[in-house]
Design brief:
Elements (H helix, E strand, L loop, with lengths): L2 H13 L23 E6 L4 E5 L5 E2 L4 H13 L20 H5 L10 H14 L3 H13 L8 H8 L3 H12 L7 H12 L2 E2 L1 H12 L13 H14 L5 H7 L4 E3 L4 E6 L3 E6 L10 H13 L6
Antiparallel strand pairs: 1-2, 1-7, 3-4, 5-6, 6-7
Helix pairs in contact: 1-12, 2-4, 2-10, 4-7, 4-8, 5-8, 7-8
Bound molecules: 6-diazenyl-5-OXO-L-norleucine.
């Protein structure tokens, strides 16, 4: 496959593409990023890496971190995690409270905010120093110990965390949050404020294309648990747009309100895109376009 010429074609097509979406503003610090940034990086398991645009520039990974949180929690407690969080698509906005009330404080899946907060609660119970240990896990999965958080984004979200706090209190009222809600929220916001580039994200997500093993040969998850993470990305990675992402792109993936998306072609590659303007469902508009073009031009998806 001539990935160089395919990415060149996508780059040309993108330059003619106008976006209508807007950069996320409910975490004020995210607004400081230029809407015109665009990066794309493809990390193949057997045939090299390719990238263009702002693919080496770091940005706030936001909800993409939920995949790392889930992976970390599964590596610690395996399938027992799913006694406290379900694996069904929600068809609802990422920060919705409504289903939680009907479903007795059990989040529909680990990628909506309630589910990721639940995972943060699990990690808070298991880890001695949750924030430091989370960052160490990111260093392990990326093979890069320079990765840090963006402190301004962290502080910005801390002062705008009312909705996530409401989700935590609701789950705690059902007995499904075991720790102090402030500590759990702190870890969740910390993981969301990690900054990574498309290049670093694609390399990290190569683990999910490679049956749970990093490109440096380190085993992070079993093949069975890797299957589960990919399945949850496929059905729940884009909230109430998971069907649309499957329909257009046809790969498991995860988005974040920082404008990043990562997708995985098991056995072949991981690919990451970054473009801050979001569509009304909170997913990167041009990012989805670029990934749709990638799987169409390569005539290859998981379907
Ligand atoms: O909790 C929040 O609202 C943000 N820290 C993350 C949300 C997010 O990235 C949703 N994904 N597209």
């Amino acid at each position: 496959m001539d990935y160089n010429s395919i990415l060149r074609k996508i780059k040309v097509e993108l330059s003619a593409q106008k976006y209508q979406g807007e950069v996320a503003s409910y975490i004020p610090e995210l607004l400081s990023v230029s809407p015109d940034k665009f990066g794309m990086h493809l990390c193949c398991l057997h045939s090299g890496t390719y990238g263009f645009g702002d693919h080496e520039e770091q940005f706030s990974i936001q909800s993409i971190s939920k995949v790392f949180g889930l992976t970390f929690a599964m590596s610690l407690m395996g399938d027992r995690l799913f006694q406290r969080v379900d694996v069904e698509p929600s068809g609802d906005a990422f920060n919705s409270l409504t289903l939680l009330e009907y479903e007795n404080g059990i989040p529909r899946n680990p990628f909506i905010n309630s589910g990721a907060l639940l995972v943060s609660d699990v990690l808070t119970s298991y880890l001695e120093n949750p924030k430091e240990d989370f960052l160490k896990f990111i260093h392990e999965i990326t093979g890069d110990d320079t990765i840090q958080i963006n402190k301004a984004v962290f502080e910005s979200e801390k002062t705008h965390g009312d909705r996530n706090m409401a989700l935590l209190h609701l789950m705690k009222s059902f007995g499904n949050i075991k720790n102090d809600v402030d500590r759990v929220l702190e870890l969740y916001i910390y993981q969301c404020s990690i900054t990574m580039s498309c290049q670093q994200l694609a390399k990290a997500f190569a683990v999910f294309a490679n049956k749970g093993v990093t490109l440096d040969g380190k085993k992070i998850l079993s093949p069975v648990h890797t299957k589960r993470v990919n399945a949850i990305m496929q059905t729940c990675g884009f909230y109430d747009e998971a069907g649309e992402f499957s329909f257009r792109v046809g790969l498991p993936g995860k988005s974040g309100v920082g404008g990043g998306i990562v997708a995985v072609h098991p056995g072949q590659y991981a690919v990451s895109v970054w473009s801050p303007p979001l569509n009304p469902k909170g997913n990167s508009e041009l990012g989805m376009y670029a990934l749709e073009r990638l799987t169409s031009l390569t005539e290859s998806s998981i379907f």
